[in-house]
Amino acid sequence: MRLRGGARFAVASVIAALLSFWTIAYFARHQPLVVQLCISGVIIALSIVRSDERQAGAAGGAPLPTWVSWVARFVLIPLVALLGSAIGRVVHAHAALGFALIAVPLVAAIWVRRFGPVWARLGSLWSFPFVASLVTPAAALAAGAGVWWGALAAVIAVAWGSVLGWLAGSAAAAGRLGEAEWRPRDASQGSPAAATPPTATGERKLAASSRMAVHLALSFAAAILLGWWLLPDHLGWFVLTAFVVNSGNRGRGDVVYKGIQRLVGAAAGTVVATLLGTAFAPGDSSALVALFVILGLGAVLRTISYAWWAAAMTGGLALLYDFLGQGGTDVLGQRLLAILLGGLIAIAASCFVAPVRSIDVVRRRTADLLGLGREALTGDRGAPEYARLAPQLHEATARIEQLAPPFHALRMVTLGRVGPARRTADLIDRAGALGAGLESFVTRHSRERGAQLGAELRAVREVLVALRRD
């Protein structure tokens, strides 16, 4: 079900990327920086469709009305793209300084989540052009000044991405009629509600979004310094990997688990694409065809594991370097070293500096679900707000299930011998089943079923209380 639901948006994202690429290439065919513009447009189009995919899977609804979101896209992203184009030229001239300038708005996009879902949405929008600048190879930034072309490329990418994202969202909504709703469980960068862990209680006073921003800032700083010192010609691989590994984490355990996935995926994708790139001469357009094929496969398989998307992105970037004449097997070892060190930097920042304990996130989200469950079991079924509990329970259950993979993996690897990990994984499983039952109960009431769910709710609460000792 996840693969089928994700395929709609995967196909839409690849079509949007292709249409953006060829439209920009046509209008900017006489410009010396056409490759830079096409790359930027592809990344923005992919990001737009991915953003619509997250909104389609958010049961609580989008933080902004659709028309407001579209206006914000067409106004904010092209304006920011102007700045991104200018910073891209700095990356070519002074790589360390350029990447540091890119890091500032990306960190700010995480920090503003503390002000609510609307700011989180706006931060996500303004980050797209800077992510594009982060991915674009320095060789593609070398020619031409025309920063205004960056705004035009952004408008084209936003238009194609918005149209294809809307079509995929409409198809997904129609497909959910008569079947269980698909819930995306990836989230390299989840919805604002899902991606930002709640602030821990007690002695931890720093908001979770602020801690995530600190983690990302430290990751960028360390990656830039270490890359500039060790492998200045491959600095972009350090910085990009640090960003990919650290984005969208939901706690210390989550970032380690997904960090390992992303490292493995990125390394595998780089190896395969670098070896594949030897079959193409520099400037051979067949390499671009292979790039889009890899991106398409990664977009489809991302719903299963983010490792596939990490492999596709880094593999596509490796092919792009080969297309620009900067590839070959002789640089493979250096790329892999940069990926490994960049990923380890991101994991270390999230684990040792103001860490967000994954077990605390599980406890908080489970407590939120139990609160909604009490309302579902004891609330007035005739009240207008009672019907809204079903999507809220759906969202709360999905937020808990997002935390399951690292605990399930740890429970399996340790054979259940690590008590806190086993009990937390068991709690997630019981809470997920309870949430699904409560969601069904809201729409199909049954006295007997209500008694069963009430007993299970009390049992989950007891497990949650016991977990606080861990």
TrEMBL record:
Q: Does the keyword Nuclease apply?
A: no
Where is this chain's protein located in or outside the cell?
Membrane
InterPro entries, alphabetized: Memb_transporter_dom (IPR049453)
Where do the TM regions start and end?
7-27, 33-49, 70-87, 93-112, 124-145, 151-175, 212-229, 263-280, 286-301, 336-356
Which residues are in the Integral membrane bound transporter domain? 223-348
State if Transmembrane is listed as a keyword: yes
What's this protein's name? Integral membrane bound transporter domain-containing protein
Could you tell me which species this protein originates from? Gryllotalpicola daejeonensis
